[in-house]
Amino acid sequence: MSVQQRNCKQLLLLVGSNPLPNFLAALILKPESICLFYSPETERVKNYLLEILKARVGKEGLSEKCIANATDPSVVRQAFKSISRDSHLHYTGGTKIMAAHARMAFRDAGGKDEQASYLDERNAVLRFDDNYEILVSKQLLELTIDEILGLHGIKRQPIFMVQHSPSANQALPSDVDVKKMVEAVLDNPCIANQLYNITRDEGKNRSFSDAKSCPVLIDNFVSGLTIKQLPENGWSRNTFDKWCEFLESGWLERWCGGLVQDIAAESVVCINVNCVRKDGRQFEIDVALVCGHRLYVISCTTDTKIKLCKSKLFEVAMRARQLGGDLARCALVCLLHGSDEKGSFVDQLRSDVADIWDAQNTPQVFGLDDLKEWAGIQGEPNVGTLQQWIES
């Protein structure tokens, strides 16, 4: 496997539904100029890609060309007639017709096999048509979460960065609180449902005014926390909401994020990533990080029912694929435990998703037994399964 570098003067990119392969090709090949070929259907994706490219490589040397009908071979071939002989065609994106006829037009214009490439996402290899290969993991890309989100027109609101120091605001949950929650809930998972119920009223967030009039003694559920009741005297609505989020599942997100940060020490790990699309729609990612060229997305839930866990798993799987394609990795961290006549619930969930996920990045499931092993509930802490997944 070659790890040498191949640069090019002008890079021609075919824009399809997933802009990440194009962006990676631009980072690896380091061209002097880039031209984006897109269709009316992919104009929005082209705009996102162009914006991120400008931020990374600058505005100079970027151009674009619209192919009015990407399903018409003659129109596609006409668009590539005026390309120069020293250009490089990267044809991962675009429709099959667009890629096939762009490649033929490139050849007819004098383009050689060593000047054409595509990204093999499943094996993370940039392949050239002359059989030359570049292993993507060996490249220093410095890819960020913001860039991956930006390629899809998504921005994030300020988020909580994983850290191992006590909270500057002592009214908010600290690392000590995370540790106490882990010890209590992993020893007795029923506590998770009890805590959820005290923060909710008929499925909705509990009213702050009602909560103040009838505070709940937290020691009845988890001892050793930095608070004794919910809410404490003098709390603001914001502090109350933060503690409710923490007691429901926030503790699991912070604990999981901390473990991931310890494993991927050189990466920036973020939890509770609040994402906003261009159309104003919002969604959250519980734990996210980028290692090299890969996006890792983790969904954390304190649900103990297989049906609810399956819903969470498919949700995070689709989100990861939308953002990172086959390069992405995703996992569900949950309190699922037990078995029936079909076998272990965790194994059933893994089997269900493996049956329909025809890719090397099959979503991973970590259940209660895995979490206990990570925490060292019945022995020395062992995060081997989590580390193995991150290094996959």
Topology:
Blueprint: E1 10-14, H1 20-29, E2 33-38, H2 43-57, E3 62-66, H3 73-79, E4 87-90, H4 96-108, E5 116-120, E6 125-128, E7 133-135, H5 145-150, E8 154-156, E9 160-161, H6 175-187, H7 190-198, E10 200-201, E11 204-205, H8 208-213, E12 216-217, E13 229-230, H9 237-263, E14 270-277, E15 282-291, E16 294-300, H10 306-324, E17 329-333, E18 339-340, E19 343-344, H11 345-356, E20 364-366, H12 368-375, H13 384-390
Parallel strand pairs: 1-2, 1-4, 2-3, 4-5, 16-17, 17-20
Antiparallel strand pairs: 5-6, 6-7, 8-14, 9-14, 10-11, 12-13, 14-15, 15-16, 18-19
Helix pairs in contact: 3-4, 6-9, 6-12, 7-9, 10-11
How would you describe what is shown here?
This protein is an alpha/beta fold and 392 residues long. It folds into two domains: 10-139, Hypothetical protein VC1899 like domain (Restriction endonuclease-like) (Rossmann fold), CATH 3.40.50; 160-174 and 182-189 and 248-390, Trna Endonuclease, Chain: A, domain 1. Helix content is 39%, strand content 21%. The chain contains 13 helices and 20 strands. It has helices at residues 20-29, 43-57, 73-79, 96-108, 145-150, 175-187, 190-198, 208-213, 237-263, 306-324, 345-356, 368-375, 384-390, and strands at residues 10-14, 33-38, 62-66, 87-90, 116-120, 125-128, 133-135, 154-156, 160-161, 200-201, 204-205, 216-217, 229-230, 270-277, 282-291, 294-300, 329-333, 339-340, 343-344, 364-366. The longest helix has 27 residues, at 237-263. It is elongated. Mean pLDDT is 90; it is low at 163-169.
